[in-house]
Specification:
452 residues; PyrdxlP-dep_Trfase; carbon-sulfur lyase activity
Length: 452
């Protein structure tokens, strides 16, 4: 019994009693009426995760219990009024409805906040839900966004087409590497958000997060960074960004079996997004299922190990492919334009990212390469997404960036033959490299290519 009480006090936080609601809130949470937990910043994301609150199961299990309820009961009628008035909330273990807050989803948010070194985090049903909700919370009708011209196709379409039509929010796209252009594009008093990806999809351009954050803050804008391509490798909030977004579906999940997203940032912002009257997350309802949150909470502890292997293999393949004469784009290579910048920002020991690109110049050649890699040598799969234990390959211009027109793709530096590879870690490195070499050999054999 003593052990259970100790465990509850140290890890699980104060639980509500059955007879009274009048006690001090759990000090793990930000403040009275605040809904999200505060996390201490650590320089190494793995260390921060290790220091995060561990939620034990209801009966003392080492893993937390899944709170699968859609709605929650109260002990006294007056309690419900106080909950809807904002006087009682999850900080005191009072829950209303799982579209608002769910204990299992909150625990995943706690881990995401630790991972990114932010005050708070909340998890959503998809990465696009996280992106759209943040931008709608920060921008009102007539608002303006400055964004990188090289973005995931879905994000680009949201900013280019949907927001102007449905929300009267406009975007100016810039070369995120041209700091002067970024500065000139921001209109003080009107531009609400400076938005970019830490490593761009698909060109693997690395953003100067500290410099861009300084520019954004000098101009009074909120700096929002999509860190989907570089969890553990980069920590944008520790480098000055205000908000960090993730498609958890990718590296963080690692299994290519769930769709999920996360918003990591100041407690004031994340709480405002859950406001009953004005919150984009609360009112738009991109709710994460508690069972999904449980699954993901069990995968985050070994994210660091997985990322190290993704990055180690990507680096090795990039070096070898370059020696074979292929046009390889990888931030770990010394000839990458932002190689030194990435070295200066990256968390030590996590490498340079798990993705690389091979520019085959034409879509036809790109498709032939992927055909051989999948169907003849089993090096990987032709599929979108990333972060899976198998290597995933796609021709970005005709797939994940297909929402962009030809001019936009050219400005973004997306070649028609650009093959994006998310390097997996299944099998041995030499086994997989042999498969890649055999596919390249087939590519060079004209007679075989003609037969296929």
């Amino acid at each position: 019994m003593a052990e259970t009480q100790s465990r509850g006090l140290v890890f699980a936080g104060k639980k509500r009693g059955t007879g009274t609601d009048d006690f001090d809130g759990d000090d793990i949470f930000v403040a009275k009426k605040s809904m999200l937990p505060t996390m201490a910043s650590e320089s190494d994301p793995a260390a921060a995760l290790a220091n995060a609150r561990h939620e034990f199961g209801e009966h003392g299990g080492v893993n937390m219990s899944i709170e699968a309820s859609a709605t929650f009961t109260v002990m006294e009628p007056e309690t419900m009024r106080r909950m809807f008035a904002g006087e009682l909330g999850p900080d005191r273990d009072f829950f209303i409805y799982s579209r608002h807050f769910n204990p299992t989803v909150l625990n995943l948010g706690r881990l995401m906040a630790a991972l990114e070194g932010t005050e708070a985090a909340y998890c959503t049903a998809s990465g696009m839900a996280a992106i759209s909700s943040v931008l709608l919370q920060l921008c009102s009708s007539g608002g303006h966004v400055v964004a990188s011209r090289t973005l995931y196709g879905g994000t680009h379409a949201l900013l280019t087409h949907f927001f102007p039509r449905a929300c009267n929010i406009t975007t100016t796209f810039v070369d995120i590497g041209d700091l002067e252009a970024v500065k000139n594009a921001i209109v003080e008093g009107k531009t609400k958000v400076l938005y970019f990806e830490s490593m761009s999809n698909p060109t693997l351009t690395v953003a100067n997060i500290p410099a861009l954050s300084r520019i954004g803050h000098e101009k009074g804008t909120t700096v929002v960074v999509d860190n989907t391509f570089a969890p553990m490798v980069l920590s944008p909030a520790r480098l000055g960004a205000d908000v960090v977004l993730h498609s958890i579906s990718k590296f963080i999940s690692g299994g290519a079996d769930v769709i999920a997203g996360a918003v990591c940032g100041p407690a004031s912002l994340v709480n405002s997004m859950m406001d009953l009257h004005q919150g984009a997350l609360m009112l738009l309802g991109p709710t994460m299922n508690a069972k999904v949150a449980f699954e993901l909470s069990e995968r985050i502890p070994h994210l660091g190990l997985r990322m190290k292997e993704h990055c180690r293999r990507a680096m090795e393949y990039a070096v070898r492919m370059k020696k074979l004469g292929l046009k390889v784009i990888y931030p770990g290579l010394e000839d990458h334009p932002q190689h030194e910048l990435l070295k200066s920002m990256a968390n030590k020991e996590y490498g340079y990212g798990g993705l690389l690109c091979v520019d085959m110049e034409t879509e036809e050649r790109a498709n032939r390469l992927m055909h051989h890699l999948q169907n003849y040598t089993q090096f990987g799969f032709m599929a979108v997404s990333l972060g899976y234990y198998e290597t995933l390959m796609s021709c970005s211009g005709s797939s994940t960036s297909s929402e962009m027109n030809a001019e936009e793709k050219e400005l973004a530096g997306i070649s028609p033959g650009l093959v994006r590879m998310s390097i997996g870690y299944i099998g041995t490195l030499e086994q997989k490299w042999s498969q890649l070499e055999k596919a390249l050999s087939r590519m060079q054999d004209g007679s075989l290519l003609n037969k296929n």
